[in-house]
Each structure stands twice: as C-alpha cells, then as structure tokens.
Amino acid sequence: xxxxMDFVENKIKEIKGTIGDKKAIIAxxxxxxxxxxxxxxxxxxxxxxxxxxxxxxxxxxxxVEEVESTFRDYMGLNLITVDAQERFLSKLKGVRDPEQxxxxxxxxxxRVFEQEAKKEKDYGYLIQGTIYSDVIESAxxxxxxxxxxxxxxxxxxxxxxxxxxxxxxxxxxKDEVRSVGEILGLPREILYRHPFPGPxxxxxxxxxxxxxxxxxxxxxxxxxxxxxxxxxxxxxxxxAFAVLIPVKTVGISGDKRSYGYVAALRSVDSVEGMTADWxxxxxxxxxxxxxxxxxxxxxxxxxxxxxxxKPPATIEWE
Length: 318
Ligand code: XMP
What we know:
Layout: H1 4-19, E1 23-27, H2 32-45, E2 49-55, H3 63-74, E3 78-83, H4 85-92, H5 98-118, E4 123-127, H6 132-140, E5 164-166, H7 174-183, H8 188-191, H9 211-230, E6 239-253, E7 256-269, E8 277-278, H10 283-296, E9 300-305
The structure holds xanthosine-5'-monophosphate (XMP).
Xanthosine-5'-monophosphate binds at residues 102, 149, 151-153, 195, 197-199, 239, 273, 310, 314-316.
C-alpha cells in the first residue's frame, strides 16, 4: 500500500540510483518545498549535496541564523550561505516599480547562484523543490493566461548551467510535502511557516528600498508575527506580515510632535492564495500589536490593519 513512509524510502533509493556518487546542488530558501527536497536528497547522497542559501538582504528578522542553525547544525547539511546583501541593495537602488523589483531580484538571484555553483567543476545535478501544484501551474500558464504578478520564485532555473534536474517532490501535494518533512525530522517551524515571496521584503516596502526601511520593516514584522505566535493566531491564518508605507504622518511621542512612517498589518485566510479573506483577528490582539510596534519602533507613528479581500486586492501590496 502507498504510504508516505514508503515514498520516503523509495525516493531515497531512487535518488541514490540516479545521482550515484556524483554531486548535486540545491538553492535552499528555507521555504517548505526546498527544505524538504534538500533534506530528502541529503538522506540519499549525504554531503555530496551542497545547499546554497542566498542572503539577498530582503529576509525577515533572524532568518539567516534560523536557516543556518536548522540546516547546518541540526540537520547536518553541507550548507553555504552567500552574503549578497550589498549586491541586491545596489541593484535595487532607485527602483520603485514592483515588477521591476521582481525582475531584478529574480535575475540577480540566478547570477549569484550560478557563480556559487560554478566554483566547483564536478556538480552534475540540480535539485529542485518543485511540487505537484507547480507542475499544474506551469502547464496552465500558457500564453493565454493573464498574469497579474510575475511571481518569480527564488530558485528559478539557471539557464547557462549544464546540470541534470532532479525534482523529488514532483508528485506530492503541499500537505504531503509537510508530512514527508515530518518523517525526515524537520522542525515544525519550518514545515508550518507562512508562505514568503521570493522577492521578500522588497515587495513589502512600497516604492524605493533602502537599508533603513528594511531595518524598520523587519522589526515591525517580527513584533506582529511574534504576537500572533504567542496568542495562537499564527497557525489559524494562512499568511500574515507587515508592510511599510513610506508616507510620513504626525504623532506624539512623550510631549513632542513626531513624524513617522505608517505600518500596515496584513493577515489573510486562504487555501491556495488565489482568493483570500482578511483574517478576523480579535481587536484586543491587534491592539497589543499596535502598541508594541509604536512603543518599540520609533520610526512608526501609525499602524493600520488591512481589511481588503482578494479579489480585488492582492495579498501582497506590490
Ligand atoms: P498575491 O499578492 O499575488 O499573492 O495575491 C499570492 C501569494 O503569492 C505570493 N507572492 C509571491 N511569491 N514571488 C513569490 O515567490 C513573488 O513575486 C510573489 N508575489 C506574491 C504571496 O506572498 C502570496 O502568498
């Protein structure tokens, strides 16, 4: 009978058979799919798998450290972190258009990944965390479908690398991928994380990005997510995050007038992200989040909660 335990066992054998004693690379993002694909492949070929994690500087607070401690220290993977923060920031300087941001980040990501991959000559395989719904999506996305956003997924395929592609999760649904991850011993925090877009915080800062705005948004987002976790709401919603609106509004700090940015909180209930309802998080919790943000992040004078559903609003603001 078909069980996921059998799947894991057979897949490991299959990967061993395919790759043998050659070497493989994977772009690890810390998202569910690439994480499970990496750990599954690591079980099959051990340190002949090199996982490359590109830090583009548009990640959430402590994300780099969490990925490193989970995959290198806890799961024992052969993991390389590429610090490409300055590279991405300088490419994004002055760029305001969301699709332009996506394009730059997608292309730059591939370049950084390629550079890292080419450092070693004997890599024969590229592992990808493609899952069943991605296969369906790309089959559907013929020329006729109208795309609202380009949805660059970090980990997009490098074109000038001569590698064989292995997609060990291709026949699995998302919930099966999570179960496989559990069987392989991946922590819950990785497997039940909210979706996070490839271009990261770049599309959650409206308009131009800089280091100052990134620092502010990381703090705000962290407060929101931490509070949702403390109150048990993190697992009840499909995706939650903060957005930085770089419009200055007036506030009072102590007995002085202050002038700071607006933070928007977005939380949605959804199945696949195609449609979404705004989450009915209790006012008491939003109240706690709001005061924590304005108390702890001095650059923010005002917090708003996004009560738009999709459609017509998309989940991300850009
Ligand atoms: P939207 O904003 O289109 O988002 O309603 C639907 C889901 O897709 C995610 N999203 C992206 N994911 N690259 C990604 O990998 C992108 O450019 C991108 N844009 C949106 C979004 O976070 C939500 O889960």
